From TrEMBL:
Origin organism lineage: Eukaryota, Metazoa, Chordata, Craniata, Vertebrata
Classification via PROSITE patterns: COX5B_1 (PS00848), COX5B_2 (PS51359)
Alphabetized UniProt keyword annotations: Acetylation, Membrane, Metal-binding, Mitochondrion, Mitochondrion inner membrane, Transit peptide, Zinc
N6-acetyllysine found at: K66, K84, K119
Any one annotated GO CC term: mitochondrial inner membrane
InterPro entries: Cyt_c_oxidase_su5b (IPR002124), Cyt_c_oxidase_su5b_sf (IPR036972)
Protein name per the record: Cytochrome c oxidase subunit 5B, mitochondrial
Amino acid sequence: MAGRLLLRTCTKTLQLRSHVLATRPHRAMGTLKGIPTDEEQAAGLERRVMQAFKQGKDPYSILKPKQYGGTKEDPHIVPCIGTKRLVGCVCEEDNTAIVWFWLHEGDCHRCPSCGSHYKLVHHELPH
Ligand SMILES: [Zn+2]
């Protein structure tokens, strides 16, 4: 009786083992076709930014800002969530002093030192 029970247990164990060894290991990439792209892997904030880039938007100001001439026709654009903003102008490249002035919503304003034009543009926060 005990011998038969032992034989049955050993047979069952060997069958289970052979089944486990016979199956191929599951790979995460097995069901996909190739390596997933960045868009497929992105999640959270990164995914939101990638979707905004597809629509041509830069909600978090990640990209380098556009260069403006500072003339009356092409003023420096200053994004703002309110109606006024304090702006610092480094008038010349080698200047160590910054000229500070308030920029108000509406028409262009000029730097009192160098004369560059600045314009305040309303900006919505992305969240
Ligand atoms: Zn200036």
